[in-house]
Amino acid sequence: MTATDALTGTDALGQRQRAHLERLQQRYADILATLGFDAVLIYSGHASHHYGDDQEASFAAYGHFMHWTGAANHQHDWLLIQPGRAPCWYYHAPADFWHLPTPAPNGVLAEAMALEPLRDVTTPRLPLPDGSRLAVIGNVGDATLPAGAVRNPPALITALDELRVRKDDYERECLHLANRHALAGHEAARLAFTEGASELDIQLAYLAASRQRELQVPYQNIVGIDRHAGTLHYQHYDPEPPTAPRSLLVDAGHRYRGYCADITRTWASRGADPLFSRLIQGVTDYQQRLIAALKPGIDYVAMHDEMHRELAELLVETKMVTSSAEAAVANGLTRAFCPHGLGHGLGLQVHDVGGRQRNAKGDALPAPIRDPALRFTRTLDAGMVVTIEPGLYIIPMLLAPFREGAARHTVDWNAVDRLESHGGIRIEDNVIITAAGHDNLTQGAPLPER
Known about the structure:
Elements lengths: L2 H6 L1 H26 L3 E5 L19 H7 L8 E4 L6 E5 L14 H6 L1 E5 L15 E4 L12 E2 L2 H12 L3 H26 L4 H12 L11 E4 L21 E10 L2 E10 L5 H19 L7 H18 L7 H6 L2 H5 L47 E4 L2 E3 L2 H9 L8 H7 L4 E3 L2 E6 L2 E4 L10
Parallel strand pairs: 1-5, 3-4, 5-6
Antiparallel strand pairs: 1-2, 2-3, 7-8, 8-9, 10-13, 11-12, 13-14
């Protein structure tokens, strides 16, 4: 039995997966009937070659294909959904001695679907009656579009995006297991940092402990020591450790059956400024207060505004700001210390679909003008999964206008200058909204030892 099986039990997870597939079958039938389609053909996608090269870029399958299959790395596959019939999965399995062919799907998927191997990169021959109205969705070119099919109809894409916004019990369990693996990686990263490791070595420790290759992570891990922690999407891994490290920020995840964990932790070294350690605890505390308030009916934009009020209170409490908390929010100072949104939807994509639409019709819910980076603007409902990830960063280019403006006397610039070498803080958990409130998927015991 694997560690994952020990956590959940394959029988229990299998039962949830069967119910998940039954739900998709019914909901797809309803959506297709409403929009006048007889069937939909979903393409998994394929990797592109680097320009002038025969090597491929990294790849992740189309989210609506993964919604059924969980197969994040399958290229050149097709899935035919036709109401009243079992889904048909055409999986690419060429006769090949250069690469190991994709094995046939098994388990619950093999029970619930018709399976057809494809020996070539081609569009499958479909068992559809003449005159069927077919939609094809995914990254499909003219050469592979079946005659008469409608490619990526917007109304269908929007409705399927909305279907993914609320997760069922199977999806919840996959997200929970992805979090368990990611937490094991974060603990390994923390230990490596305490032993003086470089960013590259910390990344390698994370991958080993979370049991994944770098190509399998749901997004490029962020591993930032010191000032690098103040670059929100820091993208490099320095192979040499600093002589006197002060801080580490790790934003890293895991993918389980297609579903993503997205966790961020920040740690201070023994040589860090005591104020930085105090700020880490402060951000952690108010992050947990924000999570405690989550339940159906809560406006996520209002929660984002609450994050700024909490941040302002922390800045005032630690005397980094001497104005009132209300003034620090009103004059934009908190947005200089934290320029990103409270979080985003999470699921088969790290920034999951449907976060800025009101309903299945796609009625837009744009981000507030003052916060264009906010990726989720909905009212929370049971089944939605969101990240809660407040931050506090010392980003000189954002704080520079306040050194010369009217608020220049309300900031302890000596403290800011001391903390600049520490980069920043972000604490991120993944939370599912339930009928009774919420469940923090990131909290809990680590994976058992193998």
